[in-house]
Amino acid sequence: MTSFEEIATLVKSRSGLTLGPDKTYLLETRLEAIARRLGVAGYEALAPLLRHDRLLQAEVVEALTTNETLFFRDTRPFDHVRTVGVPRLLAGRPGNAPLRVWSAAASTGQEAYSLAMLFSEMGAALCGRAVQILGTDIARIPLARAREGLYSQFEVQRGLPARMLVKYFRKEDESWRLIKPIRDMVEFREWNLLSDAGSLGRFDIIFCRNVLIYFDPPTKSRVLEMLTARLVPGGLLFLGAAESVTGLTSSLRPVGGEHFVFEVPRVAATVG
Amino acid sequence: MEAVMTPTNQSVATRILVVDDSRVVRKVARRILEEAGYDVAEAGDGAQALAQCHVTLPDVVLLDWNMPVMNGIDCLRGLRRDFGPDEPSVILCTTENGADFIVSAIEAGAQEYIMKPFDDAILIGKLEQLGLTGRRQ
């Protein structure tokens, strides 16, 4: 087994992420800092060190599974939540139960906090419902950053409208920190999408965008089935614009002809 | 002038007026924007920018704050006085990054705000955030 295959096998078993031979650049760039710190030449020399070092294994998996993210990445899902998703969910489930929202690949928190700001902006349109947002990720270090809610000048300029920057952030030296009421809307937890998510409960809205693209078809199906089982009847699953459920699950159908939001038909949901 | 729909001009490049007294900044912005498919014009200060807008109104003005002759805020107020609150979209651009500066820009009628130095990800990202891609339909 080559060093690449050895690392790819480890990453697949831990995270489900499939690293094909075309991804050698990813190992070269993302593992460079770890290799340099350990005084070895490149990822090829890391492989033997990984075999008996569980901490190093975790660090390598984390380095290869951390995704770039930005505030309000692709505005359409957020517009959909505001104009279609929430009104539908509230109409379908009268009462006072909080809306539960899951950002399933939260990374450094921009998606979860974008949702928190979106719900904060919705105000009275939420009809008094509380909103609970859970942000999970397999990678520990990005989650620690997410909990801090502190972002660089560069990060707050990417996707975040200036009006929301001044409303929801406070300047701290050269960085910007989200205000506490927004931070308090989100709980972050370390979580592997391949594990049984039953203990997380059920959600009205799940965002799991630009994650499935990294999985092989059987893993995509498995993750989609898990996500489907976590949706309340009528709940909505948002995937990345380039992602599809075709051929992977029959439990989900697109909502309103949009290719990025799916629901569990009510009959299927009551069985799950 | 009425557009004639032909296969070659069904989409028109979004027009951006880059206003900055630094020729280097204008050059960098022009390169980033043209590579992304935007149509770029330049002005060296706020007065020139206002005059150009009265000849051809761009879709977006990327407007520096600190300039001689007429600064960005005064130019922005002139644009809002002459063309109304929505057109053209204005992205105010400066090295000042305090919340109070951003609030002033929004209150004066800017749609967005970017801080120097900017790169292609920030600039193109802001334009896309405003719904303005390189080529409009």
From TrEMBL, chain A:
Annotated source species: Lichenicoccus roseus
Superkingdom, taxonomy of origin: Bacteria
One Pfam family of this chain: CheR
SUPFAM superfamilies: Chemotaxis receptor methyltransferase CheR, N-terminal domain (SSF47757), S-adenosyl-L-methionine-dependent methyltransferases (SSF53335)
Enzyme Commission number: 2.1.1.80
Chain ranges of the CheR-type methyltransferase domain: 1-263
Gene3D superfamilies: Chemotaxis receptor methyltransferase CheR, N-terminal domain, Vaccinia Virus protein VP39
MF terms (GO), sorted A to Z: protein-glutamate O-methyltransferase activity
Descriptive protein name: protein-glutamate O-methyltransferase
InterPro entries reported for this sequence: Bact_Chemotaxis_MeTrfase, CheR_C, CheR_MeTrfase, CheR_N, CheR_N_sf, SAM-dependent_MTases_sf
SMART domains according to UniProt: MeTrc
Class in the EC hierarchy, top level: transferase
Keywords recorded for this protein, A-Z: Methyltransferase, S-adenosyl-L-methionine, Transferase
Catalysed transformations (reactions): L-glutamyl-[protein] + S-adenosyl-L-methionine = [protein]-L-glutamate 5-O-methyl ester + S-adenosyl-L-homocysteine
Entry's Gene Ontology BP terms: methylation
